[in-house]
Amino acid sequence: MALFLIFALGLLGVAALIAPPLWRRYRRHQLTKQPFPQAWRRILRRRVPQIAQLPADLQMRLKGLIQVFLAEKPIIGCGDLEVTDEMRVTIAAQACLLLLGVTRGMYPNLRQVLLYPGAFVVDRPVNAPGGVMQDQRRALAGESWVQGQVLLSWRDVVMGAADPADGQNVVVHEFAHQLDQLKGFANGAPLLKSRAAYERWSRVMAAEYQALQWRSAQGDAGLLSAYGATDPAEFFAVASEVFFEQPREMAVLHPALYGELAGYYRLDPLSWN
């Protein structure tokens, strides 16, 4: 009897571990089967013109991802901002671009998005003269926290989506950080499938990062923003912005970098238009 009880309790424990993922998968499947609201379609046409460049199958997949994202990830207004469907759909569409090739669990560590009307101010410790640490106030357009929050400026979200070919997109940038942070910290090397993939990624990214640092020191970063020379995590986020918005330029000027990002995201934006 005791052995049977232990066995039964063990089965219950296994079921408890299996049931949530199965239920989540079923719920997400049901969400994607629901009609995509016409009002949301109009928002995409008006606010996220890049969506029109996607092949029809990817547009359909993106809409399903948007439905799941908005059902699972609350977007909370800060600074007296009242969050509207226009804001929610605009953010979700851009965040889900990174998941078109593979969902990676729909940002499993993300608990909420905090949305500000414009740039928000944060205090960051910096080294002051004499080795003393002091807080420095900075105005930011976006930030991604390992603890499960993404902070965004609505003004910058709109600007990033309005021109899908300028290589600047705060939503893509911060959600690339979320992917990088899946392992608990950000270092510019997101979760990859094999040791060989890590070795190739490290070789390509290190060479491109060092080249960007050199160009930035000369005052000409080229295609990639000089902000990417800050550290490897920022380099990955900046490179992701350019990959999604200026794929042709990246493929010509940085073919190895384009190849690594295409393999990671399992997407080829060159084929989109």
Defining key terms:
two-stranded antiparallel sheet, 273 residues, Collagenase (Catalytic Domain), 10 helices
Can you give a write-up of this model?
This protein has 273 residues and is α/β, with parallel strands linked by helices. The chain has a domain at 187-273: Collagenase (Catalytic Domain), CATH 3.40.390.10. Helices cover 54% and strands 13% of the residues. The chain has ten helices and six strands; from the N terminus they run αααβαβββββαααααα. The protein has helices at residues 2-33, 38-47, 56-72, 85-97, 154-162, 170-180, 195-217, 232-245, 247-253, 255-265, and strands at residues 75-77, 112-116, 120-128, 132-140, 142-145, 149-153. A four-stranded mixed β-sheet has the order 1-2-6-5. It has a two-stranded antiparallel sheet with strand order 3-4. A hairpin with a 3-residue loop joins strand 5 (142-145) and strand 6 (149-153). The longest helix is centred in the N-terminal third of the chain and has 32 residues, at 2-33. The chain is globular, with a radius of gyration of 21 Å. 34% of the residues are buried. Mean pLDDT is 89; it is low at 1-18.
- Adjacency order of strands in the biggest sheet: 1-2-6-5
**CATH fold type of the domain at 187-273:** Collagenase (Catalytic Domain)
Shape call: globular
Q: Tally of extended strands?
A: 6
CATH architecture of the domain at 187-273: 3-Layer(aba) Sandwich
Task: Tell me the series of helices and strands, N- to C-terminal.
Answer: HHHEHEEEEEHHHHHH
Q: By CATH's scheme, which homologous superfamily of the domain at 187-273 applies?
A: Collagenase (Catalytic Domain)
> Which residue ranges are poorly predicted, with pLDDT under 50 across at least 5 consecutive positions?
1-18
Main pleated sheet: 4 strands, mixed
Distance between the termini: 67 Å
Q: Compute the gyration radius: what is it?
A: 21 Å
β-sheet strand percentage: 5-15%
Overall pLDDT, averaged?
89
CATH class of the domain at 187-273: Alpha Beta
Q: What's the total helix number? A: 10
- Judged by helices, strands and strand pairing, the structural class is alpha/beta
The percent of residues in helical segments reads 40-55%
